[in-house]
Specification:
The chain is an alpha+beta fold. The protein folds into three domains: about 130 residues; about 110 residues, no CATH class; about 280 residues, no CATH class. About 55% of the residues lie in helices and about 10% in strands. The strands form three sheets. The protein has a six-stranded mixed sheet with strand order 7-6-3-2-1-8. The chain has a two-stranded antiparallel sheet with strand order 4-5. It is elongated and about 100 Å long. The N and C termini lie far apart (about 65 Å).
């Protein structure tokens, strides 16, 4: 003890002398002092911890080359760290004097310093740990909210699952708090609220708890279990029956995971968890049958040019087609889209169900349609040789200047000349075909696509991230026509200042600067090349695109106006856009119509936005389950 007192005196008065002494012996003494000083913590006793901060700095230097002692000291640190946390949890949250608050703050700061030192030991050498990594992890979890980036980060920096925030709160506790906040929002609405954040934080919790490096004491676990049970007690008498069931489901899920249980992933469990309906109710089926029967006799189309559809092999919901001709230096381009709103009334239970589902889901060789299959794959689909109602967007485009001479929209019967695949399209472009009408159409589409692409300037990383599956020439040609139609419809509504649902992607310049600064700091460190590359992609993806009534442009596409009108069999947002077109561009309207549509767009946009991430995750999980 006399030696430790001598070291303490040197820490207080002449810590530079310690750097010249036996590194192992000094390091052990500093940890002894740390344990003695902190574990006798008393709110009402005078004490000064400032000198301990110097001790941490000396430990950093000593541990740089002392590999053998690192593990020994890490075990000591873990014990002290856990005991300090237990002390903090016994301190009341309210009623403290200013001096007591200051003392608690000092203890928090020591814990933070200890956490940093522990992480340096984790990384085998102090120079390999940089607090920027923790900043990066916290950004991914709480700002980017991308579970795949978080899982990758945990693989690269596994011990981050045990990190503390600036207030000394463990990451697992911060995430659990977010989980319960999201659950509270979800169960507080009469018909249940947004689910995205709840599903997301559930996945983050699972990732942390299943990490091989995750450590938690019995006391810490009990605190988390009590937090969940208290949440349940506070809500149990305030909820509807359905909300109560959901609350029990999600709190039980968290309790079981904390106790080491693995989550069930059978189809019925996952459907219930993600609010996915893979079967239509009998009421929906009977309504769909009635819609099918009364719409068998569709009048003859007046548009006589050939219309072709292009999709991937095995596509079932075919909702977009193209026609084109060229005369006197003008391209006459037609973008023809399926029109569910011609069949399904706004007050229909089929429309209500599509709104709940928000979009079709695709899991490898299986799918869950937004509409009953006899409607989406038959009656309303753009199937070869069959009449159906469509929305046609006609463009007369000057081949020399690329400007639009005329833009017209029609709700009309159409008939598809031929359904084709992207592979067939690519083959004909390379080798030709005996059918000269098809060959000429595809050649003209290839020519005009260069003009269509002039309206947008898609960010390369954004394009790479969103087009990983297929980069064929034909897909790019068809995509250019769809973006062109989406752009011009959105532009029309913005200029006329009429209600509409836009697809926007806006980058916060302040956040972009923060990410760039973090990126620059990481470049100065060792072994952070992948993080720098990841951040470059994140800067082009954050935040996610969203639906809104207010046009803010689309950063990822480099475009001032954008919408979704070209996939109404697969996305509910496109149907809202379709109804706006019919209401405000093709018919007369009143001020009451404008007000009602604005309110409707605001409400439904929020519903769609807050379910997108969970549906993406569901598709990924179920695709893996089925294989």
């Amino acid at each position: 003890m006399a030696y430790n007192q001598h070291i303490k005196k040197l820490l207080l008065n002449n810590n530079t002398e310690l750097l010249a002494r036996n590194k192992n012996k000094i390091s052990i003494a500093i940890v002894d002092i740390l344990e003695e000083e902190t574990l006798k913590f008393n709110l009402d006793e005078e004490s000064n911890y400032d000198y301990l901060y110097q001790g941490f700095d000396i430990l950093v230097e000593n541990l740089r080359y002392a590999k053998e002692i690192q593990i020994q000291l890490y075990d000591r640190f873990t014990y002290i760290h856990n005991e300090m946390r237990n002390i903090l949890h016994t301190i009341p949250k309210e009623g403290l004097t200013d001096k007591q608050k200051a003392k608690v703050g000092s203890l928090h700061r020591i814990m933070n310093k200890m956490e940093e030192t522990m992480l340096r030991i984790y990384y085998n050498s102090p120079i390999e740990y940089d607090p920027s990594k923790e900043e990066y992890i916290y950004f991914i979890i709480f700002d980017l909210k991308n579970i795949n980036f978080f899982r990758t980060a945990c693989e690269k920096f596994p011990h981050m699952v045990n990190s503390l925030n600036k207030k000394g709160i463990p990451l697992i506790e911060v995430v659990l708090n977010k989980y319960l906040e999201a659950l509270n929002v979800y169960i507080s609405k009469p018909n249940l609220g947004p689910i995205d954040d709840l599903i997301y934080y559930d996945k983050v919790l699972t990732t942390i708890l299943e990490s091989d490096k995750f450590n938690i004491t019995d006391v810490e676990k009990e605190l988390l279990l009590n937090k969940i049970n208290k949440f349940r007690e506070n809500h149990i008498r305030l909820l509807s029956q359905r909300a109560k069931e959901k609350m029990y489901f999600y709190t039980n899920s968290a309790l079981l995971k904390l106790n080491g249980d693995k989550e069930d992933e059978n189809i019925s469990y996952m459907n219930y968890k993600y609010e996915v309906h893979d079967v239509f109710k009998e009421a929906h089926k009977s309504e769909a049958k009635q819609i099918y029967i009364v719409n068998q006799n569709i009048e003859e189309p007046t548009f006589k040019s050939s219309i072709y559809t292009f999709d991937g092999e095995g596509a079932c919901e075919i909702d977009d087609g193209l026609s084109i001709s060229f005369e006197d230096g003008i391209y006459h381009l037609g973008v023809h889209i399926a029109d569910p709103t011609a069949y399904i009334k706004e007050d229909s239970i089929i429309n209500d169900e599509a709104r709940k589902r928000t979009r079709s889901l695709y899991m490898g060789d299986s799918s869950i349609s937004m509409y009953p299959l006899n409607l989406s794959r038959d009656l309303m689909g753009l199937n070869e040789g069959k009449r159906t109602y469509g929305m046609s967007y006609y463009f007369d485009i000057d081949s020399r200047t690329g400007s639009i001479i005329k833009f017209d929209i029609k709700a009309e019967p159409i008939i598809i000349t031929k359904d084709m695949t992207y592979d067939q399209f690519d083959y004909i472009l390379r080798h030709g075909t005996y059918d000269k009408n098809i060959e000429e159409t595809l050649i003209l589409l290839n020519q005009v696509s260069a003009i269509l692409k002039q309206v947008y300037n898609e960010d390369l990383i954004y394009h790479e991230f969103h087009n990983l599956r297929d980069t064929s020439v034909s897909r790019g040609i068809v995509e250019s026509a769809m973006i062109y139609a989406n752009y011009n419809v959105a532009k029309t509504f913005d200029e006329k200042e009429l209600p509409f649902i836009y697809r926007c992607h806006v980058v916060d310049e302040d956040k972009l600067k923060e990410l760039t600064d973090l990126q620059e700091r990481l470049k100065l460190r060792q072994k952070t090349d992948q993080m720098v590359k990841d951040l470059e992609m994140i800067k082009n993806l954050f935040p996610r695109a969203y639906y809104t009534r207010i046009n803010d442009g689309h950063y990822g596409l480099g475009i001032d106006y954008y919408s979704h009108v070209t996939s109404p069999l697969r996305r509910y947002a496109d149907n809202i856009a379709n109804r706006c077109i019919k209401k405000f561009l093709l018919n007369k309207y009143t001020e009451d119509d404008i007000k009602a549509m604005n309110e409707y767009i605001d409400m439904v946009s929020e519903e769609i936005n807050q379910k997108r991430r969970s549906l993406d995750e569901y598709e990924i999980i179920m695709s893996k389950t089925k294989h």
